[in-house]
Amino acid sequence: MELAQARRSRITPRLGGHILADALVAQGIDHVFEVPGESFLDTLDGLYAASKKLKLVTCRFEAGAVNMAEAYGKLTGRPAAAFVTRGPGACHGAIGVHVAFQDSTPMLLFVGQIPHEDTGRDAFQEVDYRQMFAPLAKWVTQIDHAHRIPEVVAHAVDVATSGRPGPVVIALSEEMQKATAEVPDLPRVPRSVAFPDPAALQHMRALLAKAKKPVAVVGGSCWSAEGRAALHAFLTANDVPVTVGFRRQAHYDGTLDNFAGDLGVGSDPGLIGKVKDADLILAIGSRLGDAVTQGYTLLDMAGRVPIVQVLADGAEIGRVFRPALGIVSDLNAFATAAAALEPLQPGWSRWTRELRSLREAQRAVPNYDGPLNLGTCMRELETLLAPDAIVTTDAGNFAGWATRFLNFGDGQRYIGPTNGAMGYSVPAAIGAKITYPDRMVVSMVGDGGFMMTGQEIATAFHHGVAPIVLVFNNQMYGTIRMHQERAYPWRVSGTALTNPDFARYIEAFGGHGEVVTETAEFGPAFRRAVDSGKPAVLELRMNPEQITTRATIADLRAGKTPPKPAAKAKRAPAAKHPASTRGPATKKRS
């Protein structure tokens, strides 16, 4: 009775923009990432009124803001909110929605909208967001009446966090934000998750008992620390070799003896061959998508090799590959239940050791040409990362250096866009550092990706956080150049880049910048970046010839007929590094 009276006493007239801010607080949302727009001025005022309960992060570009919110959702398992203005703002932010959708990340995106009376007139910045975001989000809606705000926001959080997590997009009509309404805030309601069917668990155990060469493929999102610990317990107790999906390294401790590596872009060919020899696949949280299955070629779609697929959304099970057993379950609940099963006496220990030895063999650093051996740098970085470090990655061939040579520990996190979006890493690192200011955060990004969203470094300074950014600079769009050399060798077109001095770039903001050109410089430079306490950029000047960790441009051209001499005049000149004026403290500027 007292609770009901207290709730009634709080129902006072409020502007829609203030009701919206209060609704976010009521649903447990504590971070808002935004680029301001006149289309949600009244909501900005509401966020000001709720500033003691909501951290408002002002960003420099809508794509950066939405990617920061997405990184928050990846790391916490809870949605953050992003706000962008109508039209161009929504279009800029759409890439982050696509990241969240393919990565199964809970997130809310609020978009300002035009006045009602102008709808359908092709008004200034008018977009039908239900059509625009329909294939990119779990749910797209619009709030037109202030009294509906608590209802819609509460349901949006439920949709974003239930089943397969994902983004929800909510358009905010201009009039609604200015309207006054008397409506109660709705509390966050705990939702029970799907637990695995005990009979299905026994069926899985029976399939595992018959196997001689099982392989686990771990993916998914929103794993808790307890869920990961239970997953480790189940897979180690049964000595099952474990692979992780594309950019899912954080889900399993890479130092464990049954970790076999990652399946995705640039995977070890030896590992791919072993997975093709497997006689049971435990797909735990993995949708077995394009990158993980090497373009849908790794497994038999008809299910010749038994697949056990565990996902929270039953509609996703067997979407491409027909499983022998589908288990609908929250991933953390599944891991806890699986860890409680009586372990088997595995007959595949030799198989597991073979896969682990492949992982260790590929981590052996080749003698790459050039003064900067990035394989050695990554092995050294492994020793320099804090036990709870967060590493963000961008899209591009450069990412293969970390996935090949780094083993991430149980307390560390590694996040990146599984949809291959460039420009993700820097804003994600800033969002991660804002979320966890006391943890080490390292961004890995190519020169192309950095120049897409590197301006968000300003957001790090504005909010007083200090991520460390490693810029892998090979003066090109490396992944596209790789494909170009395979299809049209020697005919370089549209992939060369001209870059600034990245060290000076960060120095212009007041941060710490260095250029690393030799292997021995990396460790000391990284330590100085950490000790500076400032946002830092280390520019790693790669050998452009080393296009991947396993191939050079010459390798890609091998056996192919070069163009006639006359055609050489058409070749685009390779971009040159700018003259650096920043290097290690003990080294003169070059």
Briefly say what this structure is.
By secondary structure, the chain is α/β, with parallel strands linked by helices. The protein is built from 22 helices and 20 strands.
Descriptive overview:
The protein has three domains: 2-181, 3-Layer(aba) Sandwich (Rossmann fold), CATH 3.40.50.970; 198-362, TPP-binding domain (Rossmann fold, 3-Layer(aba) Sandwich); 374-570, Thiamin diphosphate (ThDP)-binding fold, Pyr/PP domains (Rossmann fold, 3-Layer(aba) Sandwich). It is globular and about 70 Å long. With 590 residues, the chain is an alpha/beta fold.
What are the salient characteristics of this protein?
590 residues, alpha/beta, Rossmann fold, six-stranded parallel sheet, 22 helices, 37% helix, disordered N terminus
Query: Would you report the number of β strands?
Result: 20
CATH architectural designation of the largest domain: 3-Layer(aba) Sandwich
Helix coverage percent: 25-40%
Kindly report the average pLDDT value.
Answer: 91
The CATH superfamily of the largest domain bears the name Thiamin diphosphate (ThDP)-binding fold, Pyr/PP domains
Number of domains: 3
CATH class of the largest domain: Alpha Beta
